[in-house]
Design goal:
Elements lengths: L1 E2 L18 H8 L3 E5 L2 E4 L1 H20 L3 E2 L5 E3 H6 L3 H4 L4 E3 L14 E3 L4 H9 L10 E10 L14 E11 L2 H21 L5 E4 L10 E7 L5 E6 L4 E4 H6 L6 H4 L2 H4 L10 H9 L7 E7 L4 E7 L22 H8 L8 E6 L10 H9 L46 E15 L11 E3 L5 E3 L1 E8 H11 L1 E2 L2 E2 L10 E5 L5 H16 L4 E4 L5 H11 L3 E5 L1 H5 L2 E6 L5 E5 H8 L1
Parallel strand pairs: 1-24, 4-8, 23-24, 23-25
Antiparallel strand pairs: 2-3, 5-7, 6-7, 8-9, 9-20, 10-11, 11-17, 12-13, 12-17, 14-15, 14-16, 17-20, 18-19, 21-22, 25-26, 26-27
Bound molecules: adenosine-5'-triphosphate and magnesium ion (3 copies).
């Protein structure tokens, strides 16, 4: 039992200007978090408790599904990433540091990175020692701080630069076993989000159809989300708009056009990327920029744009022809595993333009495109597009995403669209990471053959989930915590702190609630009742018990559930038995 007078719960009447959305305002007003820097937050005691509860519910569901908790380092030697398939693309989002103790800067050749996710680490960690098929069929997870240098952190914990993730990784001997593991994890995710009190949907997500991989996202419907989901209730179809639009979009350019293959597309007279960058844009040497590839009617296009995280935001000046590497549409579609009529946009980034000097477009595309992140970003996947010479931002209206009312691919009935927050993402990886010779994960099968493990990865944004709960569970007065994640489950407000009888009853009811397994906070502050009730609504503890005043004289206490309007007057004896 904790006492408010000794606690640190700095509630605020007004929400600070930095907060735009309800859940962010309430995180601050209820004294759960404070901002330290852009996208960087500290959890105050109440916030830390709620966060811990979300983590623990997650751990319970992971353990129940047979996964094992481990803990990997957050600071990892860069060579692990350099050996993997997405070093160039992922560098943009990674914090990179020099040798320990050196002044923090972005070194050209960093020795360490702060982990944004851990496929590159877990694969050799497990793969280095798992030698037999008997070592397969294992799933590991960790609950860890992750670091991503998001271009535009926003909405508090929703898109932060430092955040808490549960990341899990599975290693199986066969494709079928990997699919079973994936399904078991999907089931655990459903239980987890349900216990968090969230209404959510699981939707098909982009993967790029390569190597039999597939993927689902767990989405919390909310207007403040960054994703769009299309669905049809009757047919049960639900997908991220990007997936629905493309059906084909690779998450990783390396998958669709491995470095070796790109050279095959050599075309005489191809412009250098340097020229392209200079002519239409005049991009200063030190400025980051990106390349987008478009598949038009019969050509592959690459478009260089200034640093931006979404196409909508790109200040696309009219382009000097950005055709880099003509190839027939059939070649492209074959390479992408795609269907004619669809379009893929592939985005890569390079920070150091000097690296591109004198490099031919093909090579530049390989450099920037290796391990692409664009597949799952807004407006990156467009349909039936015809890139013209004078492409500019306004013309992006012509590139269309799947719209509400378009036919459902299963039933043909009209699709609906809903904005949503991505709280979890699971992915059947196949052998993309395991097949690496040095940093991979292989095992010897029953017949003595060396095989790459079939992997899956499973992420939950723990801190984003916490805020999503608040976004979905609040009213005009404050948070309405679901039971399992509430920082405390019972709040006892004593209106007469220091009065012997009231204190004794508080202690007694608090002990009864604790004995029943609930966590208890006592508001014993010397404040007016109205002030305490306001705070109680704001911090949103599920069950409120008020002791004191006239009720106490009548042998009664008041009980009120935060999610219900009515207050119940209950005899002291009944209150005790209610709690037990
Ligand atoms: P987003 O599309 O929102 O950028 P993502 O697809 O890049 O997310 P994943 O790589 O799938 O994220 O990571 C797994 C989970 O981690 C996500 O489903 C999300 O809940 C959470 N997450 C990712 N980025 C952030 C962030 N910047 N702040 C908080 N949580 C995040
Ligand atoms: Mg992201
Ligand atoms: Mg995403
Ligand atoms: Mg994701």
């Amino acid at each position: 039992m904790d006492y408010w007078s000794k606690h640190y719960i700095p509630t605020l009447k007004e929400s600070p200007a930095e907060a735009e959305i309800d859940s962010h305002k309430l995180l601050l007003r209820a004294g759960l978090v404070r901002k330290i820097g852009s996208g960087i937050y500290a959890f105050l005691p109440l916030g830390a408790k709620a966060l811990e509860n979300v983590k623990n519910v997650c751990r319970e569901e992971m353990d129940r599904a047979g996964a094992m908790e481990l803990l990997m380092p957050a600071v990892v030697p860069a060579e692990y990433w350099k050996a993997g398939p997405r070093w160039n693309a992922a560098r943009e989002i990674m914090y990179q540091v020099g040798s320990a103790g050196e002044k923090a800067e972005l070194p050209e050749d960093p020795q360490f990175v702060l982990g944004p996710t851990h496929e590159e680490i877990v694969t050799p960690l497990i793969g280095g020692e798992a030698t037999s098929y008997r070592d397969m069929g294992k799933t590991f997870y960790q609950v860890q701080t992750k670091f991503r240098n998001e271009i535009r952190p926003r909405y508090g914990l929703m898109r932060a630069r430092e955040f808490i993730m549960k990341d899990g990784y599975s290693f199986d001997a066969t494709d079928e076993e990997a699919t079973d593991t994936y399904k078991r994890m999907a089931g655990a995710y459903e239980k987890f989000f349900a216990r968090c009190g969230l209404k959510f949907i699981s939707v098909e997500a982009d993967t790029g159809v390569m190597g039999g991989a597939f993927s689902h996202e767990f989405m919390v419907p909310a207007e403040v989300g960054d994703d769009d989901v299309v669905y049809n209730i009757e047919s049960g179809y639900a997908a991220n708009v990007e997936k629905a639009t493309s059906g084909i979009i690779p998450t990783d350019f390396a998958d669709i056009a491995p470095a070796g293959e790109i050279e095959k597309f050599e075309t005489p007279g191809v412009k250098t990327i340097e020229k392209l960058a200079k002519e239409p844009f005049n991009i200063p040497a030190d400025q980051q920029f990106k390349t987008l590839l478009f598949v038009g009617d019969d050509k592959l296009f690459a478009v260089v744009v200034r640093g931006c995280d979404q196409v909508e935001e790109a200040k696309l000046a009219s382009l000097g022809y950005s055709l880099l590497r003509p190839a027939t549409v059939d070649e492209i579609f074959e390479a992408m595993g795609a269907y004619p009529g669809s379009l893929g946009a592939v985005k890569g980034t390079i920070k150091d333009r000097s690296k591109l000097d004198g490099v031919y477009a093909d090579e530049a595309v390989r450099l920037v495109g290796n391990g692409v992140t664009g597949a799952n970003e807004k407006a990156m996947h467009l349909k039936n597009v015809n890139v013209s010479r004078d492409l500019d931002i306004d013309k992006f209206g012509d590139f269309r995403k799947v719209q509400a009312g378009e036919p459902c691919p299963i039933s043909g009935q009209p699709l609906e669209i809903q904005r949503a927050i991505e709280v979890g993402h699971i992915f059947k990886l196949g052998t993309k990471y395991s097949e690496n010779t040095e940093y991979g994960a292989h095992y010897v099968d029953k017949d003595g053959n060396r095989q790459p493990a079939v992997m899956g990865c499973y992420g939950i944004g723990i801190s984003r989930t916490l805020q999503s709960i608040i976004e979905q569970c609040h009213d005009k007065n404050g948070i309405v915590w679901p039971w399992h994640v509430a920082p405390y489950q019972v709040l006892i407000i004593t209106l007469d702190p220091g009065m012997e009888e009231a204190d004794a009853l508080t202690a007694k009811l608090g002990a009864a609630a604790e004995a029943a397994g609930a966590t208890v906070l006592v508001d014993d502050r010397e404040e007016r009742p109205g002030f305490k009730f306001k705070d109680a609504d704001l911090i949103g503890i599920p069950l409120r018990i008020t002791i004191g005043g006239r009720g106490l004289k009548n042998g009664e206490v008041e009980m009120k559930w935060r999610d219900q309007g009515d207050m119940m007057k209950v005899s002291i004896a009944d209150a005790e038995s209610t709690l037990v």
